[in-house]
What we know:
- By secondary structure, this protein is mainly alpha-helical.
- The chain has five helices and two strands; from the N terminus they run H-H-H-H-E-E-H.
- Helices cover 52% and strands 6% of the residues.
- A hairpin with a 5-residue loop joins strand 1 (118-122) and strand 2 (128-132).
Amino acid sequence: MADTTAAPVVAHDALSFRELLGWTGEETARWEEWLRAQDPAVLAVSLGEGKWATVGDLVFHICVVERRYTERLYDEEPSAYEGIPRSTLDEIFAVHHATRARLERWVAAAPPEEWEKVLTFETITAGTLRSSKRKIVAHVLMHGVRHWAQISTALRQAGHPQPWMHDLIMTTAMP
């Protein structure tokens, strides 16, 4: 089992949430532009069986999780998953744009004690969880990275490669 004792962070081994917001924002903008330029059939590319069985389902899921967890950061009741519009890319990415602006504001303005505040909440798939707001921000950012990688792989395998590299090293959000 890995040692989970947190070591003090020093400047040379710190990656900030603002930098991760920059990278993930850049990456999502590329995805939005690329998806809008494709035949809408790419949204129906299968990801296998399950709750998020198509590319379109998973893109929606990424945006909704970002929204629901950002609402938790603001101590708001999370939006009902079923009530969030998802019929078009415009609707799906409108959720992302509105949410990302709120998330960026929270990250920029939250005082240190707010980052460490622990919330207890019900999730749709994992039951009751306890998490610091700091961990929630990390989750939102890494959740999207993980699912965009799934989408990238499925689309590439279905003959729809993307014309950019997705790796952090390629971002302009940090030197």
